[in-house]
Amino acid sequence: MGSLPVISVVDDDESIRQSLGGLMRSVGFGVKVFSSAEEFLNSGDPRNTGCLILDVRMPGMDGFELQRRLEASQYEIPVIFITAHGDEELRRRALIAGAVDYLLKPFSEEALLNAVQAALKK
After folding, report:
1. What domains appear along the chain, each with residue ranges and CATH number?
2. What is the phi/psi pair of residue 25, to 5°?
3. What is the pTM of this model?
4. Of 16, 99, 119, 120, which has the fewest beta carbons less than 10 angstroms from its beta carbon?
């Protein structure tokens, strides 16, 4: 497990963080969870993250702003956006900005794991 990349989950919903953290651990990934974009940025973990599962809408800094800040800081972390809001314009924006995927909650474990595998191949 130590050689696999760390998957970071950033979502303001504690149940989502616990669920996704458990799923990633169950398939052998190291995982770290964060309740906000600011917490993730302040953790020092961006440099150790192989893939970022990121909620679009959160209090404070949203997922798009975090993605922009990471790019501005030269962190090339593959991002998978997750959201409860099925806004086609936001999906288009996310994919144009380089997101690996944009999954609408509730999504299947298979869909998320496929997106993580694709992200780690980038």
Report:
1. 6-120 (3.40.50.2300)
2. -65, -40
3. 0.93
4. 120
